[in-house]
Fold this protein.
Amino acid sequence: MERRQESWPLRRLRRAGVALAVLATLATGGVLAAGIAPAGAYVIQGHAWPGHVIRYHNAFPADAAAVAAAVHDWNTSGADVRFVSAPTSQADVTIAEMPSNFLDQTAGADNSDLLGYASVGMVPRSAVVVSPSGNVRDHGAHIWLVRIGSRDASGVKVSLGTMQRVAAHEFGHVLGLGHEHHVCAVMQPALNEGCGVGHPWIGLCTDPLQPDDIRGAVALYGGREPRGGKRLCTLSPPPPAPQSASAAAPAGSYNVTLRWRNPSGITLPAGAFDPYSLAGRPTIAAYEVDGSRHGCPAPQHDLIERWPARAGAAMKTSIGLGPGSWCLRVRIGDAFNRWGPAATLHVTVPAAP
Ligand SMILES: [Zn+2]
């Protein structure tokens, strides 16, 4: 339950790449191989390809952007292996659209939310690979992907960003990696589960490969060990201070007029992360004014007003204050309920004559 909560609501990849039936022609005797890895880390499930180059043919142009991103991510990961595009006749791996009869439709089979599927590790071109339903069979290593923009089992459109991660996951299987269940990894059965994304403004990076994934590939192919812990990216900077803030107290009135301009913030892009609730949403969401006659108020103290506000807007508000020397602070809040630094204004409201 908790694991579901902390992961972005990416569709799950249950069973993807596991136990792909490779029929009897597979000379290596099966895809399950003993992997030596630290406890709770990457799982090696297949055999490495020889020669550090894996030629792939993308026979599914609709998902070309996702495939290209995944290839780029792995080719720049530091592992000493490269995916290289090749014509069908020379390809080790074929990428194809997952057909509707791909899945096991028998009662009780729970794979309606499968977005990708792959063979694991080196598979000879003569070997037959078979889909879970048994209806789809082909020769040689394969990745099957659903179409970007198609609707998943919950009716939500599958974004490019999601399919970039799915493709990275499936290419990980092709390298020989199995499912990792313990640490943050794109090789988690449910994309990057366990990454501990605890704040809504912290998300997975566009390149979803985690150090654990890369260590697994380095164990198979050699290369540079990644440094550091899990890779998370800030989706949106915290809101900056209001711009050009001023306060004026007209003579003979207790009303103080505040003016400022809201920062522009950003509009959260689609695809790089949670594609459901945040995409297209502006980060600048609200302002608040705090005020005190006894020194400057601490954040969120002595609240005078707080209202929704638009990014980039020229703001003007009139506040009725008693006479005295006021310290007013204006802050901008964002869609994640973070508050930026204050613009501090001092204004003296004269006592009525
Ligand atoms: Zn998988």
About this structure: The mean pLDDT is 82. Residues 13, 16-17, 169, 173, 179, 189 surround zinc ion (CB under 6 Å). The radius of gyration is 27 Å.
